[in-house]
Structure formats: C-alpha cells, structure tokens
Write a structure and sequence with these properties.
This protein is mostly helical. It contains 31 helices and two strands. Strand 1 and strand 2 form a beta hairpin.
Amino acid sequence: MPNHFVTWPDKKMATDKGRELLFKNKAKDSEAMRRQRTEVTFELRKNKRDEHLLKRRNVPHVESTDSEENEKPVTQSLETIVQNAASDQPAVQLSAVQAARKLLSSDRNPPIDDLISSGILPILVQCLTATDNPALQFEAAWALTNIASGTSAQTQAVVQAGAVPYFLMLLESPHQNVCEQAVWALGNIIGDGPQFRDYVINLGIIKPLLSFITPTIPLSFLRNVTWVMVNLCRNKDPPPPVEMIQQILPTLCMLIHHVDTNILVDTVWALSYLTDGGNEQIQMVIDSGVVPFMVPLLSHNEVKVQTAALRALGNIVTGTDEQTQCVLNNGALMFFPQLLSHHKAKINKEAVWFLSNITAGNQMQVQAVIEAGLIPLIIHHLDKSDFQTQKEAAWAISNLTISGRKEQVAFIVNQGVIAPLCNLLGVKDTQVIQVVLDGINNILKMAEEEVETVCTLIEECGGLDKIEALQNHDNEDIYKLAYEILDTYFGSSEDEDVDLAPPQTEEGFTFNPNVAPSNEGHGAFEM
C-alpha cells in the first residue's frame, strides 16, 4: 500500500472545450491522441526487420529440371552461358539457362549485376514464352526470380525487360511448378514497393492468384501464395487499391483458420499491414468479421503468431473509439496479463504500446484497462523494463491522465505511479520528458484540493529536484512546463505549516472522509 491514499470525489467533467484549455497545447480527443502516437509507433518499429522477408531467393531446396546434375558447379563462362541461352537447340539452351540459374541460386553473393550487364535478361524473358518447353520456362522463371530478389535496381531491371506480363501468363500454365515459380517471381516484384505492387495488380494478378487456393494445393505452394498476399497488402504510401483489399479479405479470413504456422503468421501479418493503413482500411478489416478470430491468437503458443496478432490488433486500436471497442468487445484485454509478463521483451513493449492507445480512448475504455488489472503491470514496466518499454508505459499513463476522470487518475496514483513516472524525468530523451511532465501536470491539475498530497509524493521520490533541474533544459517547451509546474504547485514552501498536512491513517492520507471512492475506480483492485 502506498503511503499516501488519495480519494478524489467524482465531479462533473469539464466540457471538451474546457478540457482542451485545461491541458494546453494538447489535442484532447482520443483520435487526435492516437494520431500523436504515429511518431512513437514508427520509432517502435524502425530498424526492426519484419518477421518475414520482402523478397525471397529460391535456393536449390526444390526440384530442378536436371536432378542428376543439380549440385554440379557451373563451368561455363558467363559469355558462353549468354550465347548458349540464345541457341536454337533446345538442349543447349536449357543447359545454359540452368547454368545461369545455378549462378544465381548457389552463391551467397550471386553475381546478379554481372548477369544483368551480360544482356541475358531479354533472353530469359523470351524463354518464358516457350509453352512447348515447360522445363525451360521453369528454369528461366527461377533465374528471373532470383534476380528480382535483389536490390530495387535489380528488380527494376527484370520489370523493364518486360517479364511481368509473361509471369502473369505463366499463372495459367498447366504445369504447377511453373505456376509456383511465376508466383514467387511476382511476389519479389510486388515486394519492391507500391509502384510495382500497383503495376502488377493493374495487370490482373489477384484473380488467378486466389484461384490457386484450393483444398488440393500443396502446402509449399500455398505458403508462397500467402506470402505474395502479404506483399500485396504492404505499403501505405499509397495504400493498396480498395478493390484489391475487398477481393483479398475473404481469403485472409479463411486462411486465419489454417493449421500451418507459416501460413497463419503470414495471414496475420497481411491483416496487420491492412490495419496500418488508416481508419477506412481498419473498418474494412473489422467488417470482414476476422477480429473475433484474431483476438485468441494473442495466446497462441508460437511467439511469431502472437507478435503478428498483437501488431494487427494494435493497429486497429489506433483507430476510432468505436473501432477500438470492437477489439475490446472480443475480450482482448483478458490476454494482456500474460502478454505483459511475456518472456520476450518485444511482446511486452508492443503490449504496452497497445494499451497506450486504449488509455487514449474514452473513459469506459480507460475503466476496462483498470478492471482488467493491467495498471499495476503497466506501472511495473514504467519502473523496471528496458527504456523503450518504459517509454510506451509513459505514454499509456500520460494518455490516461488526459482521458480518465478524476477517480481513474486517483487510482493510478494510489497504485504508485508517481515515483516511477518521476524517475523518467532524468532521461535524455526529450520526448519522454515531455510526455512525463505532461502526465505529472495533468495529475496535479486534477488533484485540486488533494494537490498537496500529490506534491508530497513528487517531493519524496526526488521528482521535485528533477523538475527544478529541467528549468535549465535546452528544450523550450520542457523548461517552460517545468517552471509552470513549480510556480503553480511548489511556489512557496517556506510558510508551510506541518500541522496543516492532512491526517495520516494506517491506509495513508485521507481526504474528504464523507466521500467514498467509487467502486468503478477501486473495487477490482487490492493493494
């Protein structure tokens, strides 16, 4: 039990306009608060590689057309390979294209630029048209797949050689290995970015791609098709066409029930990219009916699935209050005690990020976080976790001080939030200091007649010294807010009379003894 127990009476909330004036320089509606998280969300994810690759190189784990000689090294010179690849003798041509493919798939650093410079790309593209020689089509598609798996410039070279329309034609091939290799190549091209994504979409990939998903499709092929769908859903500048999203969502809703972990992970990542594209796309995902099936994945035994589900659902709660409520109505918060106690730090961090967007919501949503028993866990991460998770926890608390009513803010004070919050005032991160100062300022403003108790908590944990030091901070907003807090709440301590301090009982300080705390704010929690 903290030394100081605060019971703030439930008074009528100020109007929205009044709240905006009360917390100056802050947008108070929950949607605006969630928009403020964009920068932090970016920082949360930057320099972090996705769980799966944008592009994939086909190395010889699958059958080739020369199974007996598959592992033989290439002995022909590049010049000879190019010359023979243009031969009118099928056997010579196939051997040369196989040799090119081996160069591109057997080396850790394949000589992609050398092959592009050799002029072989138009020859390989022409080989894609050899409907009477599916082995040649397969080998040429494989070689081009691996060239397209490289840099943007290398992918662009494949596109500029005119390969995409021929890959789309190969999706109609009667030979499954040819179809699958064409899907793989198109996935690499789509994965390069929104320009090529939209180019391939406009040429008509969606219908034939989805037609492959049948009960008889081999697992490896279905994994490739699902991965291509992930790339189709990537990028939001610009976002994928609405028509494509509408076409692909029913398939994603079906695949979310698949037993294969790789397919499940890619399916949920595809949904996460869609929900990262703004409120309209979030609503499309909600309307598809997939949310009730995503929420239980938060407790999946594979961390990769949990991570993807947490990201997808976390993106949804960056939307409107109504969109956020859809996730809460499906019982998402019941999984968060485990997520906040997860052995993976990245799960902890994203779980706190998720909750920071719930505490940016309305008071009913703030109350849901309280009643789920999550405030002590958020405060624990604020106090003990790595810095990135502490930063997310600071946002969660600061948002609550804006969105919550007085009893809800009093609850987090009674849970011991002041000391760990003040501890973060000593960090170097300007944004974190700003967020923490805002939170402290909001708590003090809402405390009203109990403000001296909060001031005592701040002083006892060393927070007052830190706020005083921030008057010398380089950032103008920080030193002005630090000065404002000191001037308003700690202006004169010389004349303070110890006898005027509120009486302390075994439970801590008591205020307004005739006003009982609301069960909504405290009933579900015991210290």
